[in-house]
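Researcher: Last one for today. Full complex below.
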Amino acid sequence: MRTSLLLILLLISATNFAQSEDEKQMKAIYDLALTEGKAYDWLNYLSNQIGGRLSGSVQAQQAVDYTKGQLDSLGLDRVWLQPVMVPKWVRGTPEFAYIETKPGLTTNVPICALGGSVATPDGGIKTNVVEVQGIEDLEKLGREKIEGKIVFYNRPMDPTQISTFSAYSGCVDQRYSGAAEAGKYGAAGVIVRSMNLRLDDYPHTGSMSYGETPVAERVPAAAISTKGAELLSATLKLNPAIKFYFKQNCKQFDDVESYNVIGEIKGTIHPNEIMVVGGHLDSWDLGDGSHDDGTGCVQSMDVLRLLKETGYRPKRTLRVVLFMNEENGLRGGNKYAEVARAKNEKHVFALESDAGGFTPRGFSFDCSDENLAQVQSWKKLFEPYLIHLFVKGYGGADIGPLKTDDLVLAGLVPDSQRYFDHHHAENDTFEHVNQRELQLGAASMASLVYLIDKYGTITSDKIKG
Amino acid sequence: MRTSLLLILLLISATNFAQSEDEKQMKAIYDLALTEGKAYDWLNYLSNQIGGRLSGSVQAQQAVDYTKGQLDSLGLDRVWLQPVMVPKWVRGTPEFAYIETKPGLTTNVPICALGGSVATPDGGIKTNVVEVQGIEDLEKLGREKIEGKIVFYNRPMDPTQISTFSAYSGCVDQRYSGAAEAGKYGAAGVIVRSMNLRLDDYPHTGSMSYGETPVAERVPAAAISTKGAELLSATLKLNPAIKFYFKQNCKQFDDVESYNVIGEIKGTIHPNEIMVVGGHLDSWDLGDGSHDDGTGCVQSMDVLRLLKETGYRPKRTLRVVLFMNEENGLRGGNKYAEVARAKNEKHVFALESDAGGFTPRGFSFDCSDENLAQVQSWKKLFEPYLIHLFVKGYGGADIGPLKTDDLVLAGLVPDSQRYFDHHHAENDTFEHVNQRELQLGAASMASLVYLIDKYGTITSDKIKG
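Model: Here's the assembly. Have a good evening.
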């Protein structure tokens, strides 16, 4: 009885000691992030000196050069570029669209080509419009009512979803597959309501796929601003015979070489166990890509710097990876995983930040129940920083290809309310990022990496044995 | 054994039933707020049609008229104006200031008079500057080093505080009492670094008090933007002999009559038990008072509407109170409490929203441990809405005068990271409020009111007996 009591007391005091060491390290990380964080300065450069960084563009290459240079200056153990072939799609001259209520009577509306779309014919397309609430409506309408018309996908994001990402998931099929599906019924083109919960004048671009559709049969697709969508829908209700005109001259070029940018601190005890933290360096071309995903890149870079500057030397190898081409291909994420597998690298943890630079609320984890339980046991440590979400869920697109049974994949979960006001639109710009919110995200990520490094993850070996 | 088991099972199923009724009601409230909330439209009018609403101004009266009209249209049981005398301070023509490094060589810096300050002499004040890090430095310096000079309070907000309100508390004595204290040492004037965690060009006003200082001995006080403060401090380091010039012609007039705006739904079972929800209708004059505290007013108004429209009829009497003159006098809050005491009204709950219209994170409670424990037992109900903070703390300035042992005082706690970017400054404007964040706050407040009404608060009678 006495021995076991003593053991319990020892355990408690050991836990308390560890707790207080963890508290101290995390406080050091947060303090440094909030007083001398670098993420905001880096983002300022990426956003305001470089700007939108679409795969294959000059700006994407400038971002590669700039971030490599900055990582070089941090005194990491190794910094390198990982070559990857990426698609090159170019928007061309600005798109143009109007609603024609009767010949000569037109109202311009803001549109933008979806990423990957084909151009319209040189003179544009002008024809009748059929409004649908989703892909499933096409079958009900049939070829007869669709052929030769523009299909207008107008199902809005569900405002009652508290996570705006859930609302996005419930809509984005219209953007991604809408053109391929409408093409099967002979549509002349596709207009998609922007994935935006707000009513405003910004069209939001984003990736789309023609799937197996032969090149000759592909129909052009554009996003219309939410206000434009409301106007078009209201006009159609008054007169279903109105016409819509749009013109875009975007183009897909051959793939070009680009790079993932990688920096590494070698682990002192388990150098072969790799932890990855990252975001994607490419962005859409309309804004400057601040929230999507400049913030994820600069936060990830700052994770290594914050640990280094607070004197923490990781036991496991820690890598920052700035992935290229998340937006329209995921080539960087796939390449990184492919090379890792070829080299037989053992990844134990991967953390992605690709949900905006807003106040961090927590993390979502794609991992075993045992690993989730371990992470949740650290909840108390995050409480002073108002980090409260430790849930099962999605890690991230770029780290997804690394997935194994033992790997812990995690995604930073920032407050999501404002994200889709800016996502893939002209107003995804630097002034909408708050420095403290951004740096709190970097500190939260660095703290999680610290805890994972210190305590290790639970592998299926350990669970079995 | 069997009986007690049965009892437990009954209790559990009763709880489950209650839980699911509460879940349903809260979902109805949040859904309505996110689809047909009125708070944002009301705020649009207050901010963009009326603007800054300093006590005693025409705009403050317009806000009284507008909000009373809107409450009238909601079909409440009673809407009325409660007269209250308020101070009337007027800024006058825009302030002007510069740093003079040598005669003829000047750099303009943005300043604004603190609310309640006296004017400078007509020609302004130009003299040497002594920089201090707080009021406590005055004694060390002594009259000799202060007399005839401008005292420059430059202690910044502490960026390592996670709650920016804590950082504000640690600084605001410089603004509130700086002039009264510096005056005792013969200072010619006072310049205070703006209460802002960001470096920018906006000076932030706010209330100050001369305490018992006779009118003739009061020295003028102004806030300088954080960038201006950095420049002034850097210039002083290079040359302590530089001069600072500032001019302001603000003026305190006699008190004028104004109003608290009050609307009420009579309780069906306990009409004599009153629940209050409110914000303050006055604001500073530089911006349009959107976050401080237009949001608190329109959220409070929406609380009554959301409950009404979802078909919930409160058992207790529910009042919305839009307090006048929180910013420079608290006369409205004091008047409301004074009248309540004179009428022997029994207040059981008071909820204030005066911390910005950002994503709600939870509530802070000024109440007994028993009442806090009850509220915390509802935590699970709020989880789907990411409301996670239920802590002991401050209720709010306007509801403070109501305080009794039995009363539960509560304050909405929104995310605080961006608040002091805008607080009391020209950029506290409508476009910085996000509709969803605002409406989520209103729904969270309505949900808390619903639960308090349904389950009642725990009075000291109940605890004792």
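The radius of gyration of chain B is 24 Å. Chain B touches chain A through 26 residues (CB under 8 Å).
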